[in-house]
Amino acid sequence: MDLLAQVLINGVLLGGLYAVMALGLALVWGVLNIVNLAHGAFIMLGAYLAWYFYAYLGIDPFIGLPLTAIVMFCLGYVMQRSLLNLIVRAPMFNTLLITFGLEVVLTYLAQLFFSADFRTINPPYAGNSIAIGPLVVPLVRLMAFAVALVLTLGMWLFLLHTKLGRAIRATAQNLVAARLYGVAPRHLYAVTFGIGIGLAGAAGSLYGTVSQINPYIGATLTAKCFAISIIGGLDNPLGVLVGGLVLGIIESLTVLYVGATFGDVASFGILVLVLVIRPSGLLGKTA
Amino acid sequence: MARNTLRACGALLAAAVALVSAPAFAQDIVLGASVQLTGPVANTGRYYKDAYEFAVDKINAAGGVKIGSEKRKLALKLYDNQSDVNLSVRQYTQLVSRDKVNLLLGPFASNFALADSAVSEKYRIPMVQGGGASDQIFSRKFKYIFGTLAPASNYFGSTVAMLKQLDPAPKTIALLYADDAFDVSVAQGTRSLLKKAGLDVVLDERYSSNATDFNSLLSRIKSVHADAVLVAGHETEILNFVRQAKSLAVAPKMYSFTVGVPSEDFRKALGKDANFAFGMTAWLPNASLKDRWFGDAAQFAAAYKAKYGYDPDYHAASGVADVEALAQAIENAGSVDPQKVRDAIAKLNFPSLYGTIAFAQDGQIDLPQVVIQVQGEKVVAIFGGSGFVEKPKYPMPAWDAR
Amino acid sequence: MRVLRIGLILAVTVVLAALPLFGSDVLIQFGINTLLLAVLAQGWNIIGGYTGYASFGNSVFYGLGSYGVGIAMVQWNLPFAAGLILGGVLAIAFAFLLGIPVLRLKGHYFAIATLALAQVMSAIVSNVSIAGQNIGLVLPPLNNDYLFYELSLGLLIIATLTVAWLTRSRFGFGLIAIRENEEGAAVMGVNTTLYKVLAFALSGLFTALAGGIHAYWITFIDPESAFDISLNVKMIIMTVFGGPGTLIGPVFGAFVLSAISEVLSSEVTNVAGLFFGVVVVAAVVLMPRGIADVMRHFRSSGWRYFIENLRAHRI
């Protein structure tokens, strides 16, 4: 019984981390209709950035999270403004291809600058845990979960209740009308993508504290984020949280009851099921 | 449309011409290899590039390889296979059929060695590899593949022998292993070793390679109260395992890993958390290992560190051993004819900085593993063929008591 | 013009078929690899180019074909042909069973669903003991590159002829109708579900056969290399580069991109990966409808073609 409870806690906390990772992808996809295959690579870059801040400037990864996010935001803004804006109205899979190319380039550059060595962000409290009876709650994962809640709620408030957020959604839904209203679409698209990448950067910061960083973690992370975004639904940031939790819990339970090699079968299996039965996701509006 | 087709022909023919042209034949003896310089396993793959280059330079500095009355230098032709097995196979084919190298050196990792040895066997050019230890590589009765890594099934041999002599002796063992060729081989061998030693295996679990989350497995280890945990996996996984063990407050009496502990990179990434971890290595930079070109293993390690900036571990030593094996075999055979060199390699028996280089009937070297442990800043040899060398720090204290 | 065109194509085919006689070993290997990639591109062309359903998971068929051959030859000691048949059957069964639910999705969702299917199959196979789990299978070696080359060329010719037949058959017109306006096609009496599934199965069949040949040639398969995800991008990029929905486009795209990639990997080995990424990005931005489209419009618009592309697609 204790084991089950512990594994469930593990799953929930993992889910929180997953949610942060997928938030940026879901935002950009749901709002801008840009499917970013390089999302994992941006998480990786964010992680390296946070590592750099911690190793060379002594900035704690959690305190420095906004800093990492802002730097990544700028990177995302520039990328959208200069490159991705060029293919926004092209057929769907052009974005898939271009972001794939981007992923290859980013991974290569990361390997060039950081070499294939692995890095970890190891603040002194990294391995601490809180004991609740027989259960152990890893501190950093708990903090990451808190960050996930804050970011998801923040995104939800932003998109649904602020002027800028509504402008972004309007532009994505009807470009011409938005222009007529005086909205600057290129700037708005760039801001949105920037936010998405900023979120990826935040996720990277957390990821580096919990796991290890090397230039090649991008691809698997992207795949996970896809699953989470779809399972939760792209319409609503809160859906990402749900998606993350579902995936985290099911993966942890699968390892416990089925076998440690079946994790991927479970995650992608659920993804296929959701797509086939309810493509708009668990929290999405049915068309 | 016709123009389109014409351009297609042109493109194809141009590519054909570019690839058909052969390079000029050199006096140097060329050793070819396809190594992982980029891609997910590059952090270990590059050790082989450094090692091969270091060895070739050293042998050339000593005059080269003596064939009859003349001395010839060694040259290296290296390709980056980007951690892609299929590309690696094509590159080895290219090395043999287009670049016309004389002999082959191997890649890192058992699955690569497994696929690439099919090329060396097909073209009958001997390949000496120091990166693949899985039994599968040597069980196909191939004649042209040789390996300087000790058999996978025996990796935990000395560790299991040590377990029985620890006090208090661990009774329950958890065995975790990744699902690739090498680690499955290790697990198979370890299982029978544990059975023979009469130890109780309470957890025997295979996990997906490249797994990042070990929380569930760690929780299970805690709940079955395993005294000792043996993990056969890759460095990135073991890194995650240790960090997550700390954050879940899982501290068995001891844990031992097949990789990671000997490598400086790994210990640096973990920092203090690496303390108390056991591992194994078939090689330590001991001054007692004398070498024809490098003096001895200690001098080699110092020179290597001076040149490359990091301490060599058994991967690097294994890579150097491969080059030395080829050089010695060429001299023994008195020629670079692949068949003669192959026969000479099979009969090799000489001391080197890596230990005695001699291959068994199936082509694999047999070296015992020495149990090592991270103690503070250092890696200490603990247990070898003849018993305890140093006192182990055992049992491992709880994480919050360090 | 028509006769000239057919004559040229025949000439190229004969040259390709005779290549093993005067080419080096490396060239033949490159040839086999490229021909198989061209088959993949052509296969994708059927479901992606003609039907308009961009599958991002055709690699699943490749894997099924590889394992069909692998299991048949290693576990049951059957000959290669039997393995190919087994691979083909697995692919068609998969296309029918999973195609029906998945083909109800559109656009992104279909692409992601196929990708997810590929991942699931890869994960499942790495747990199946008859497939050697994650270690894979070692097939009996056959040192006969000529044979593999001619087989690959033959498969490519069959695939291309099939696509040629498609362009003038009722089935093909139905697929194009589905691509242009699926609801309209349904109203006109096209059995869209059946046609889509057939296209998916056909696409999968060729991909599986290519996978089977590759498996026997490389003599070693494991889930990661058999269900190689990067193949998906490769086959799409080659088709898009050459011109989707055209007959020769995918083949051309495959040849050119393979040549570039191989030359880079062997000469400039360091920047090979980087360069490929940059080429992909540039191609998508500047010529999203492929080289075929560039050829068609270059004469009339010249360099302005690229600028017009940019203007049309950006905001």
Report on the structure:
- The complex is a heterotrimer of chains A (287), B (402) and C (315).
- Chain A is an all-alpha fold and 287 residues long.
- Chain A contains 11 helices and 2 strands, in the order H-H-H-H-E-E-H-H-H-H-H-H-H.
- In chain A, strands 1-2 form a two-stranded antiparallel ribbon.
- Chain B folds into 2 domains: 27-150 and 286-357, Rossmann fold (3-Layer(aba) Sandwich); 154-281 and 369-401, Rossmann fold.
- Chain B starts with a helix and ends in a 14-residue tail after the last strand.
- With 315 residues, chain C is mainly α.
- Chains in contact: A-B, A-C, B-C.
- Chains B and C meet through helix 1, helix 3 and helix 4 of B and helix 1, helix 2 and helix 12 of C.
Task: Please report the two chains with the greatest interface, counting residues with C-beta closer than 8 angstroms to the partner's C-beta.
Answer: B-C, 47 and 49 residues
What is the overall pLDDT average of chain C? Answer: 88
Q: In the CATH classification, which architecture of the largest domain in chain B applies?
A: 3-Layer(aba) Sandwich
Number of strands of chain B: 19
Low-confidence stretches of chain C: none
| CATH topology tier name of the largest domain in chain B | Rossmann fold
Shape, principal axes of CA atoms of chain B: globular
Structural class of chain B: alpha/beta
* Count of alpha/pi helices of chain B: 13
Give structural attributes.
heterotrimer, A: 287 residues, mainly alpha, ABC transporter involved in vitamin B12 uptake, BtuC, two-stranded antiparallel sheet, 11 helices, 3% strand, globular, B: 402 residues, alpha/beta, Rossmann fold, 2 domains, 5-stranded parallel sheet, 4-stranded parallel sheet, 13 helices, 41% helix
Compact description:
Chain A has 287 residues and is mostly helical.
Q: What is the topology?
A:
The complex is a heterotrimer of chains A (287), B (402) and C (315).
Chain A lengths: L1 H31 L6 H19 L7 H18 L9 H23 L14 E4 L2 E4 H23 L1 H11 L1 H6 L4 H26 L7 H15 L4 H21 L5 H15 L10
Antiparallel strand pairs in A: 1-2
Helix pairs in contact in A: 1-5, 1-8, 1-9, 1-10, 2-3, 2-4, 2-8, 2-9, 3-8, 5-6, 5-8, 5-10, 6-8, 9-10, 9-11, 10-11
Chain B lengths: L1 H19 L8 E7 L6 H20 L3 E3 L2 E3 L1 E7 L4 H13 L5 E3 L4 H14 L3 E3 L5 H4 L6 E3 L9 H7 L8 E7 L2 H16 L3 E8 L7 H9 L4 E5 L2 H13 L6 E4 L6 H7 L7 E4 L8 E2 L3 E2 H12 L5 H20 L4 H9 L3 E3 L2 E3 L12 E6 L2 E7 L2 E2 L14
Parallel strand pairs in B: 1-4, 1-5, 5-6, 6-7, 8-9, 8-10, 10-11
Antiparallel strand pairs in B: 2-3, 12-17, 13-14, 15-16, 17-18, 18-19
Helix pairs in contact in B: 2-12, 3-4, 12-13
Chain C lengths: L1 H21 L2 H26 L8 H17 L4 H23 L4 H19 L11 E2 L6 H23 L2 H11 L1 H6 L4 H27 L1 E2 L1 H4 L3 H13 L6 H19 L4 H15 L3 H12 L2 H10 L2
Antiparallel strand pairs in C: 1-2
